[in-house]
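Question: what's this shape?

___
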Amino acid sequence: MISAPSLSSRAPSAAERERGHNKLKALRRRRSAKIVATLGPASSGLERIRALFDAGVDVFRLNFSHGTHDQHRASFAAIRQIEADTGRPIGILTDLQGPKLRVGNFAGGRVQLANGAHFRLDLDPELGDEQRACLPHPEIFEALRTDTDLLLDDGKLRLRVLDCGASFAETQVMVGGALSDHKGVNVPQAVLPISALTEKDRADLSFALQQGTDWVALSFVQRPEDVAEGRKLIGNAAGLLVKLEKPAAIRQLDEIIELADALMVARGDLGVEMPPEDVPSVQKQVIHACRVAGKPVVVATQMLESMITSPTPTRAEASDVATAVYEGADGVMLSAETAAGQFPVEAVTMMDRIARRVHEDPLFFATLDASRMPPEHTNSDAISAAACQVAETIGAAAIVTFTSSGATALRAARERPAAPILTITPNLGTARRLALLWGAHCVHLADITNFTDMVHKAVRTAHREEVAGSGQRVVITAGVPFGTPGSTNVLRIAWIDR
């Protein structure tokens, strides 16, 4: 296991947190779905990252397919500075590159493959031409069978295997086009005998854990064993998020959800390896399965893609974001829109506006309520389900959850209550991780010691954070003994009397 030291940036002092709480009123999100935004050349530097945060970002994604450790270190430092200035816990998601499968180089840099032509792939490092190319991945040849399809350049070209061996594949071009140096290769019908973690990933993971990342995303997961390998390296130092990009992973979805802390529907790569018409139903299936399991799920890729070059999205893109929110996704993600686009702040602002508009729709909670799952047969689930029911019955302004590990907040969010979930935790790492959780407004405070302290902190914090006003009620859940993870067994109702 790769060990992680305590968080590399110091936690805010009590005075800093109090100053931050005074600024926090304008920063409480008026929506349940969270926004994940990718940092890159268009969004580097303290001021630009702060502008993205002010526009609505809850979790920042650092894409380790690009950038140096020094650049990512600067992003970590900027995010933690903003966190200290505002008093609001901010999540950081480290996205590991994973294995990249690519063809070699061509004489002249590119070739044109005609439909019906024969084309050979092999291990020979010589420059390629219209008849052959190097594919420096023996593991691909090991998995190939006759009639297997190979997709090149994000699915733009399709080859069908006619014959293959340990070091070659004779193919026929089914869909031709231009093919240039280092274009990607996908094998949708095969499970490749490769790890989801390369040596580069291991080095990047060690660095990210040292910096105090909150989430680690595994790329190109094919099987539950890939998730178990990641868990062994990460331990409990960060949350483990699995990106669903391969059809093989969808076929073992339940096992992967059980091993992961969160999932991402990475529709770009997923849409390359399966028919586009299948992706919406897979998205709905994954969101439902994650909600049943009580684990966060993020919908990603091409959500507001036109805003890379335009200050406004298409109506179809706005509808796409809204659909993910209506389905109950915990988070929606921006990739190139904020990493390399011309309008990164506008893209976040637009996503925030769409999510808030859905949240205000009376049909939103009616739809979620219709798909509410029965609670599991545990004390924590029974209390969480009861808290949501009580909040609805008495018209409570908020549900206040005291949690150490985050489990209580996860169970409350699983119910998708109409009342906001105010999560109070003594663990800053937990607060940061829960920045990804549906409906959760996280506050980092010292642990409670008794029932009086519990009610006092719940009422005072709910009032200060403006989730409840004078004369309103809140529903409180906690665990006794206080500070014991996973012991949720208390439900109280309290008035805001000031």
